[in-house]
Design brief:
The complex is a heterodimer. Chain A has strands at residues 5-7, 10-14, 19-24, 29-37, 44-49, 55-58, 61-65, 71-76, 85-93, 100-102, 106-111. By secondary structure, chain A is an all-beta fold. In chain A, a hairpin with a 2-residue loop joins strand 6 (55-58) and strand 7 (61-65). By secondary structure, chain B is mainly beta. In chain B, strand 4 and strand 5 form a beta hairpin. Chain B starts with a strand and ends with a strand. The chains are: A mainly beta, B mainly beta.
Chain lengths: 112, 113
């Protein structure tokens, strides 16, 4: 199956620091989504990207859809303790219906 | 804000038993999905459902799995004869006109003993 490579796998940062994580794939994606998952809960949609090159913000979060449609990054500025969780990228492949392929996740830990 | 709901939140069952996981998607959504997440792993697609039929399914979704929309609000996943390896979190999701933008429920944690 298709693979999304997400990095880093985990990050431990100080409160107030900026964070960056990214996903890459060998395949082209129609749409790229970023989700956050807290322990024992479902993924919560953070940002959706629909066009190559698109840069979208949601509060302290900024995400971009790569020009080649094969990568995306998510930045979190001025991290706070409630940013703790696992962040997943997910992509919808061209001609693969609405199925989402998920990355392996980035576990973010924030030290107050 | 509308959200996807799932019941039960937890289910423990014996191997070989049938389980039905229930979901109420967001009310005006048209597309419905099931995903699963084995503990510590990434979320995996199982099946998508549109216009009262399966539109896509993964290799995981074998003959032991079935989905149904029995009425205008519920969407169910049935596992006919559970196996130990079916233990996972099962997430329902739905999407509206922007089919790619999927909203997930809180999940059902299934434990097969």
């Amino acid at each position: 199956g298709q693979q999304l490579n997400q990095s880093p796998q985990s990050m431990f940062i100080q409160e107030g620091e900026d964070v960056s994580m990214n996903c890459t794939s060998s395949s082209i994606f129609n749409t790229w989504l970023w989700y956050k998952q807290d322990p024992g809960e479902g993924p919560v949609l953070l940002i959706a990207l629909y066009k190559a090159g698109e840069l979208t913000s949601n509060g302290r979060l900024t995400a971009q859809f790569g020009i080649t449609r094969k990568d995306s990054f998510l930045n979190i500025s001025a991290s706070i303790p409630s940013d703790v969780g696992i962040y997943f990228c997910a992509g919808q492949l061209v001609n693969a219906g609405n199925m989402l392929t998920f990355g392996g996740g980035t576990r973010l830990m924030v030290k107050p | 804000e509308p959200e996807v709901t799932q019941t039960p939140s937890h289910q423990v069952t014996q191997m070989g038993q049938e389980v039905i996981l229930r979901c109420v998607p967001i009310s005006n959504h048209l597309y419905f999905y099931w995903y699963r997440q084995i503990l510590g792993q990434k979320v995996e697609f199982l099946v998508s459902f549109y216009n009262n039929e399966i539109s896509e399914k993964s290799e995981i979704f074998d003959d032991q799995f079935s989905v149904e929309r029995p009425d205008g609000s519920n969407f169910t996943l049935k596992i006919r004869s559970t196996k130990l390896e079916d233990s996972a979190m099962y997430f329902c999701a739905s999407s509206g006109e922007l089919a790619e933008t999927q909203y997930f429920g809180p999940g059902t944690r299934l434990l097969v003993l």
